[in-house]
Specification:
This protein is mainly alpha-helical and 164 residues long. It is built from 6 helices and 2 strands; from the N terminus they run H-H-H-H-E-E-H-H. The longest helix has 33 residues. The protein is elongated.
Length: 164
Amino acid sequence: MSKSNSKLFNKKDLFAYFLIAGTGAVVQLVSGGLIKDWFKVSYEESILPAYYISLVVGFILTKLFAFNARQSQQTRREMIKFLMVASFSGFVTWFFSVIPYRGLNIIMHDFYWQIPYSVKKINLTQVLTTINGMGFSFVSNYVLHKSFTFKSSGFYDRFKDLIR
C-alpha cells in the first residue's frame, strides 16, 4: 500500500467520498421529502427510512469509486461492515438533525420556500437541520468506512466465528 493510500485523510479518497456522499445526500433529501408527503409521517420519522434508501446507493458507489475497494473480492464482508457503520451513522444523522430542529422550533417558526409554479413548499428549517445531521454523519462514515469497512481488519472472520 502506498503512503498516500495509508493516510486516513488523503485527498483522493476524501474527494471521491465527498462526491459519493453528495449523491447520497441528494437521494436522502429527496426520498425524505417523498416519504413525508406520501406516507404522512413526521420529519423525525422520515429521516431513518430516507437514510437507509441512500445507504444502498452509497454502498454501491463507495465500493466502486472510493477507497480502492472495487477489486477487493470481499463484497459480502464489506456489506456487513458497511451496514454496521451505516447503522451507527444513521443514528448520528437522526440525532444531529432532530435535536437542532427541535431546539430551533423552541425559539422560532419553520421557514418555507415555495417551488415556483408549484404547490409544493419546502421546509428550509428541516432541510438545513438534515444537512447538519448529514455533515456529522459524513465525518463518522468516512473515518469508519476508511479504517474499518473497506480495510481487512479480521473483525468479519471473528464475528462469523462468534455466530456459528
